Amino acid sequence: MLAKVTVAEAANAVADAPDRIRLELIAPFVEAAARVLTQECGESVSKGQLFRVRSPQTSNEVSALIAITGGLGGLVIYTMSEATACGFASRMMGEEVTEFDAMAQSAVAELANMITGQASIGLERTGYSTDMSPPVLLIGHGASIATFNLTRLVVPLVVSFGEFAIDISVKESA
Fold first, then answer.
1. How many C-beta atoms surround the C-beta of residue 172 within 10 A?
2. Between 119 and which of 6, 29, 77, 95 could a Cys-Cys bridge form, CB atoms 3.0 to 4.6 Å apart?
3. Strand pairing partners for 153?
């Protein structure tokens, strides 16, 4: 059973975190993304240059936010253009998706859910038991979240039909 976690609660959990995010907390998300995208979408993934950002605004047209609690606290945000989101939905649904409608939105939310679930399994193996919220989709470039002014490590990932990024802001819970 998933814990009931809000994005605001998870943001508050990492608000006082130092700007240094431990890489061993990031690797399970990148590994899970590569595995899920290969299995579910038939895509190979290459990683771009990591960078940090601190802003209350999302960085692309489609963002799927998932709050993390338990042994770690924080947020994971999967961001992409609408065209890339439609590409993922097309691969997952087995048919061409040209409009980011309710079905495409559901596919992207499920993709975020699968990646985070797989990352949680990887984190559990290293001693971090976590719970996660259901995905929350934000649509529209530059959407702002009042509690979102956190330092996030951004891991750009590239697939054949576009780029998406995993924005990660997690820390060990006290």
1. 12
2. 29
3. 52, 168
One-character DSSP codes across 9-60: HHHHHHTT--S---HHHHHHHHHHHHHHHHHHH----EE---EEEEESB-SS
77: tokens are 């945000």
State the pLDDT confidence band at 21, using cuts at 50, 70 and 90.
Answer: low
Q: Which domains does the chain have, with CATH numbers?
A: 7-169 (3.40.1550.10)
Is there a contact between 2 and 132 (Cβ–Cβ < 8 Å)? yes
Residue 122 has pLDDT above 50, yes or no: yes
Q: Answer for the pair 17, 171: CB distance below 8 angstroms, yes or no.
A: yes
Please write down the long-range contacts of 17-25, taking CB distance under 8 Å and 24 or more positions apart. 17/74, 17/150, 17/151, 17/169, 17/171, 18/171, 19/52, 19/151, 21/151, 21/153, 21/168, 21/169, 21/170, 21/171, 24/126, 25/72, 25/123, 25/128, 25/168, 25/170, 25/171, 25/172
Q: Do you know the residue count of the chain? A: 174
**pTM exceeds cut of 0.70:** yes
Token reading at 3: 């814990």
Q: Specify the amino acid at residue 101.
A: D
Nearest Cα neighbor of 50 from 32, 15, 26, 76 is 26
